[in-house]
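User: I'm new to structure prediction. If I give you an amino acid sequence, what do you actually give back? Let's try with this one:
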Amino acid sequence: MIFKGNKELKQKDFKNEKELQVFFEKNIENILGYKFIDTEFTVGNFRIDTLAFDDETKSFKIIEYKNVRNHSLVDQGYTYLKMLLERKADFVLQYNVQNNASLSKEDIDWSQSRIIFVSPIYTEYQLNATDFKNIPIDLIKITRYEEDIVEIDFIKKNSNVKIQEVNMISDTKNVNKEIVVYTEEEHLNKVSNDLRSLYEKFKTRVLELDDIDVDPKKLYIAFKGSRNICDVEFNKNRLKIYINVRKGNLIDPLKITKDVSNVGHWGNGDYFTFINNEDDIDNVIPLIKQSLKINRK
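Assistant: Good question. You get back a string of structure tokens that encode the predicted 3D arrangement of the chain. For your 297 residues, that looks like this:
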């Protein structure tokens, strides 16, 4: 239930998929942080509802809207992703046309491509069919209420099963060879037990602060509110923490951060610091709290 003051707001559904699409495209940067590229983008025999681009991961995102229950999301999702991989040049061209840019196929990280379904309702079958920890399909549940109040729920995957562990059609296997869903486990398997333990202690402290999501990327692990709050890279014996605060806005009395606003780097934000031991976590948490105020959900 959603309340405004003492009033319980009644649900006021989108009239149809198109109305949902118009709302989402208008607010896509605020909701997802993605750059809007095109609507109803046609490639061959396929028409994509919304094409977006994630500057953080340098990857395309296909967004489809559903207002009914009787769709197989997995089949459609893998069909569209297969098409994306087979027609890369079309997507790069459209990006360049819309942004007056000159990207090449090599500038795109195709392994982090995703399809995102947006719907006010999902069936148990749809939820279960997409609940593999490495499936490149994300679900967003969107509910509209009176007075233009909109609730957005990013559905998390709970299964520890990988889709490779079940029977797959060949197209699905081919897509999974190129598109990768990165996990914490894959990052942690590459580091020492001591560094893993340090990361887990840091993670516990961060998640105690607020409603924060853990979002593993190709080269780092992001801790997210509405945007990335901080990002963690694993060095050989320490954690490298990027604080997502713009230059000049971070209060750092201990002077433990470095300004990387003019230096190329993977993580988000203009500052980073290192965590070498558990005591360092105490010094970093106040900095993360500042980023949390800016990037809270």
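You can read the tokens as a compact description of the fold. Here is one thing that stands out. The chain has a mean pLDDT of 91.
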